[in-house]
Amino acid sequence: MAVVVVTDSSASLPARLVEELGIVVVPLHVLVGDRTVREGIDELDIDYTSDTVTTSAPSPGEMRAAYEQALARSNGDGVVAVHLSRLLSSTWESGRQAIEDMGAADRVLLVDSLGAGLATGLPVLAAARHAATGVPLANVYDTAVSAAGRSRSYILVNRTEQLRRGGRLSSAAGFFGSELVTKPILQLVQGRLELREKVRTRSKAYTKLVGAAVEEVRANGSRGAAVAVQHLSAPEGAEAVTAQLRERIPEIDEFITAEFGPVLAVHLGVGAVGVLVLPGGCR
């Protein structure tokens, strides 16, 4: 068989790629009133402006069930589990506890993607494609770690209130000011969500997002790159960013577009647009 790659639903990977590469996906949870909604499985209208909607990680038991399924599928070749940043979610910690409970530290290798959304998904793709070639467990793990270290994320949000309230964005005093007249651009740095800069209009913000991605590809001297655009109810903005990226980064060898899933959407809010880049690509 081959090493099996596991991730969580925040990775936002297209269903066709998940099926094609045999990736196991553990659903994260959205808590709406007294209901727990499993991302990617259960359907429920969610008010992303509500202060009462929250999210939660899978339990260690849920993680263990996914890892055991993946181990069985691998026929002993092992599992590489790539999850969203441990600084943004307790998902990674649930995975660590599950592996400890299983006594499977040599068979299930855990990777912090240092990202979220397709910044997790792109390293997952790189690992799963390498696994499909039949390489050993350690090689797949190294591929995932390397890709996670190269992946970069830049996100435009309308407001940062939800992120600060949830403790996922450090409140750099004096930087925030009024968000009614400015557009905050965030970035993920070693798994931590930080404010990068603010601009006055969405069009300027889109240009800044694209510019950051271009700089990253150029700085790495890469011959290729995987690039993704994610958004929440902002298709026109995503299209504008996509057009600029394709024009300014001709060496793109893979492009993915997707909406942010419910878990990330709860924290980012309507109108969010993100650019995620992996210099060197996922091949």
Tell me the series of helices and strands, N- to C-terminal.
Answer: EHEEEEHEHEHHEHEEHEHEHE
Beta strand %: 25-35%
User: Cα distance, first to last residue?
Assistant: 20 Å
Can you tell me the residue ranges where pLDDT is under 50 for at least 5 consecutive residues? Answer: 172-178
Largest sheet, spatial ordering of strands = 10-9-8-13-11-12
Output the number of helix runs.
9
Q: What does the main sheet amount to?
A: 6 strands, mixed
Give the CA-based shape: globular
Rg, alpha carbons: 18 Å
Structural class: alpha/beta
Mean pLDDT: 90
Number of strands: 13
Helix content: 25-40%
Structure explained in plain terms:
The chain contains 9 helices and 13 strands. Helix 2 crosses helix 3, helix 4 runs antiparallel to helix 5 and helix 7 runs parallel beside helix 8 (235-248). Helix 1 (15-21) links the parallel strand 1 and strand 2. It has a 6-stranded mixed β-sheet with strand order 10-9-8-13-11-12, sandwiched between helices. With 283 residues, the chain is of the alpha/beta class. The longest helix has 18 residues, at 202-219.
Present the secondary structure layout.
Blueprint: E1 4-8, H1 15-21, E2 24-26, E3 29-32, E4 35-38, E5 54-56, H2 60-74, E6 79-83, H3 91-102, E7 108-112, H4 118-131, H5 137-150, E8 152-156, H6 161-165, E9 183-189, E10 192-199, H7 202-219, E11 225-231, H8 235-248, E12 252-259, H9 262-268, E13 273-279
Parallel strand pairs: 1-2, 1-6, 6-7, 11-12
Antiparallel strand pairs: 3-4, 3-5, 8-9, 8-13, 9-10, 11-13
